[in-house]
Design a protein that fits this description.
four-stranded antiparallel sheet; alpha+beta; single chain; 4 strands
Amino acid sequence: MAEPNALYVLLAPAGQLSGNGQLRETVIERRRRKGEDVPFWYLSPELVEEFKLPGKGVEAVVAEDLQAINWLKLRFGGESCTVPLDINKLRESAMGLPPAPIIRDISG
């Protein structure tokens, strides 16, 4: 198993980061520009628990780039920290996109 790397993490209550679909667009754009293997991952509440990050009912973004985490924190809020995580495990388990936004019918 690979030695864990110190990575930057942004944690927030579920839906705060991903609720409006802008984080999903950010992940897609970042992967398009920098490649599919860019060290930038979205963790659902289930993956937050699997990776033993602090909090219940929270989602997270993990990155090697502190500036990316700081920008997301300014944009969405949340709490940031540095955590040792296995990049290979992240690449195996956390390559999914944040959920798409829920389209609400406000016409009625």
